[in-house]
Design brief:
- The protein is an alpha/beta fold.
- It is built from 9 helices and 8 strands.
- An 8-stranded parallel sheet has the order 7-6-5-4-3-2-1-8.
- It is globular, with a radius of gyration of 17 Å.
Length: 239
Amino acid sequence: MSSTFENRVELVEERIKQACERSGRSRDEVHIIAVTKYVSLNTTKTALELGYRHLGENRWQDAQVKWEAITEECDVKLSEHPIWHFIGSLQTNKVKDVIGKFTYMHSLDRLSLAEAIDKKASQLGIIVPCFIQVNVSGENSKQGLEPEELLPFVNQLERFHSIKPIGLMTMAPYEAEPEQTRPVFRALRELRDEVQQSSKHASTITHLSMGMSNDFEVAIEEGATWIRLGTILVGKEEE
């Protein structure tokens, strides 16, 4: 497993490097979230051992076993604690299970969810960094705000003191030719730039969470600061 994993890491890192070179960016600007939702606890530990501290899961019921086991063992066997990212759609009644365990939220898309996150975070005495999800592609199957809803939503977040909006997130349609995703990623970057010019959160909404296994190179070229890599990096297992 480790050897295969290391080979994937080498290939992914080379592709990221090349995408950064093509777009005149520094490799340090691009952060990887290792999406572990389709792999076992052992593979998740391997990702940590290979230096991928940022782990992404999209459902608490699937992540719970990994989170509990790694939290218990990390002080003994792993040099650094993982940093968990919740990357899936979150129901308000599941907020209590997630906030306090996952550092970053990538799917803030409605005020009811903001209220629930803010309430739980306030109880815990923490501030939660959140990405606002925008449905740039307009697909019915995708979650997120409509682009025209973004700025009013950002302004309404000002009353939630335990939420820190740090960027935008989107999911592009799966395309056989990744180049076809470019308009989606470019549009999210332009929305981020508009928010920075028009909102009090200009200084904090800087990041772009976009790009997955199929299209991360195009996302990097369009300004992604966080890419979410599952199959291409950690693989996929049938458990």
